[in-house]
User: Fold these one by one.
Assistant:
Number 1:
Amino acid sequence: DVKVTQSSRYLVKRTGEKVFLECVQDMDHENMFWYRQDPGLGLRLIYFSYDVKMKEKGDIPEGYSVSREKKERFSLILESASTNQTSMYLCASSFSGSGQPQHFGDGTRLSIL
Amino acid sequence: QKEVEQNSGPLSVPEGAIASLNCTYSDRVSQSFFWYRQYSGKSPELIMSIYSNGDKEDGRFTAQLNKASQYVSLLIRDSQPSDSATYLCAVKSGSARQLTFGSGTQLTVLP
């Protein structure tokens, strides 16, 4: 079974803090993704990575950065957290190639106060 | 802009009925199609994938794909209250690494 593990289920931080969300997968997947999900807005792609040290912007990268130093780990960084970044954050991973689905972690519900 | 459209619902069906969830997509070169189920407060879970025109059955679930009409659907037979969730349609085009998700259809199965 694919296992995508996010470091925290719930996280509360303060405005202006630097926030790190960690994601680890155990299936040797090439691709890893970070989404946020808000009521009425669906899943929105923030960043994704298709190889170690490689990254591409998604639909809403502003205010975020990412790091992928090892194949199994993909970190999302909120450089200076703001209240509008309060959301559910979802990590996913997949193999490369056509026909490969994404597998999601349990999500991190982040509140910025 | 590649788009995936779903009726947001909510869709309500009685227990034991067939639930029909629909999805249309705009990119003609789309090749892979997925259905995810998401319970409230949980993450999306892959339930079906389909790549060729026609029907694909897995237990009570049937995915239907019509590439000419750019249409994919999910049928749930003998619907159960435990099927109550939001169902997300996702599409992958050609060489793209990422999926394009629809906004989801909320399904409620009434006991």
Number 2:
Amino acid sequence: DAMVIQNPRYQVTQFGKPVTLSCSQTLNHNVMYWYQQKSSQAPKLLFHYYDKDFNNEADTPDNFQSRRPNTSFCFLDIRSPGLGDAAMYLCATSSQRAYNEQFFGPGTRLTVL
Amino acid sequence: GEDVEQSLFLSVREGDSSVINCTYTDSSSTYLYWYKQEPGAGLQLLTYIFSNMDMKQDQRLTVLLNKKDKHLSLRIADTQTGDSAIYFCAESMNDYKLSFGAGTTVTVRA
């Protein structure tokens, strides 16, 4: 089945220790997104890739970076995680022709100790 | 303030209809969406409506849009225990960005 896969599902890191979250997709979609969802809050878009073009949201902290080495994979790098970065991180994809239909992965829950 | 607002909780008896309400502020929204999130899972797109429509029906789901009042609702007929989840309302304009509400937790009781 075509899908969006996120690894790991649960990630624990220490304050200030860099961490990388992974997303892969078998849908061959050209747009990939990263959202941050804190407890009982709305998902918040951090950035998205349109093919190789990176689009950062204005209020996304510099601490968050992303890489997309190919169509299938996208990574979220948190350079120096703080306690406030503990959240669920959701990856989503959409095709150019149906950009309004976003398909989400199951998320990675990040804990910062 | 929030661009998209929803009530936080809804409790409904199995077999009854559920109605989840949402208000949004941006009159230039092009699409309005309902997503479902089950525990430990990602968001699942349930349905969406284009802003020039008033209603959309898909099996047990009915979406109503009142563009004048900027009010969106989702009605689930014959609510089942499997419908227990968090439901998110979202809006977008002619771009890739979705703006979500904080979600309504629906609990279905026997």
